[in-house]
Amino acid sequence: MTSMTMIQAINSALDVMMTRDDTVTVMGEDVGFFGGVFRATAGLQAKYGTARVFDTPISECGIIGVAIGMGAYGLRPVPEIQFADYIYPALDQLVSEAARLRYRSAGEFTAPITVRSPFGGGIFGGQTHSQSPEGIFTHCSGMKIIIPSTPYDAKGLLIAAIEDNDPVLFFEPKRIYNGPFHGDYNRPAVGWAGHPDAEVPDGYYRIDLGTARVVREGADLTILTYGTMVHVVGATIADMGTIDAEIIDLRSLIPLDIAAIEASVKKTGRCMIVHEATRTSGFGAELAALVQERCFGHLEAPILRVTGFDTPYPHSLEWAYFPGPVRIREALAQIMKD
User: Fold this and answer.
1) Whole-number Å distance between alpha carbons of 329 and 326
2) Strand 245-249 vs strand 213-216: parallel, antiparallel, or unpaired?
3) Which pLDDT band, with edges at 50, 70 and 90, does 313 fall under?
4) Which one is catalytic: 129, 195, 231, 275?
5) Residue 129 annotated to the active site
6) What pLDDT, in 10s, does the model give residues 220-239?
7) Can you give the residue range of the structural domain that contains 116?
């Protein structure tokens, strides 16, 4: 076991899989010699050569199109989209080609590609470096959507994603790459050192896709969340100390661990959903619908959502955009009085 940041855990997962399977390749803008803008691929080109870790032109459509072709002919590409905001030029390749390839070819071809991409806020990147587009892709059948919240999960889930025979979008919350934030901008990030979920096995292990994690057991209400918000919610609940909340880290949006969600909400009778992406048509709306359909008779209060605002992503006001402790506490007060 080694204490790792999320960046180091992702790098370790790639290293493990490239050692185990010579069909695994890494590609993207600046992922080779430079090691990626966040250094997630640092050292891999020197170790495995330019044929397996290579830089691409600045063309997201081209990156994903080439990766799909490589996957169809027996390789397991892991393309990086430098920021999730840049993924839109590749939308047609992902939705019309990768997601449908197995079905369209009656199983003759697959697209075993894992698209890594930093997403969400945390670096004051403004509108073109901070978006959370996961809801767009959860609407598209044929793709799997994974969002880790800890170094341990990041490595185990990435290994499972690379081994999967269908396309996986692996969104990495860059705000917690080097350590989780406590709630708001005025409380600085704490490193991963000493965090129990930063103790990561050096070798191979996997976490099956579609399995949620109970971060904290509780009896008063269920909070469904993922990515950075796992830590924001956890810090808020810890600071309050008055509400016995059960916190569920979804980890995987597609496939979704519906059984874990249903069991928790039926136990607590209340459900709150927290995510960083915009509210309207965000994944929280799907979660609310599923909980209402499956747990209506057990609910003691309306399902509440705490999300990003329905606005273009702000630059200097980034921390006001984030669902933070103030808005989470307000929602908790409302749901517990109903």
Assistant:
1) 5
2) antiparallel
3) confident
4) 129
5) yes
6) 999 999 999 999 999 999 99
7) 2-200
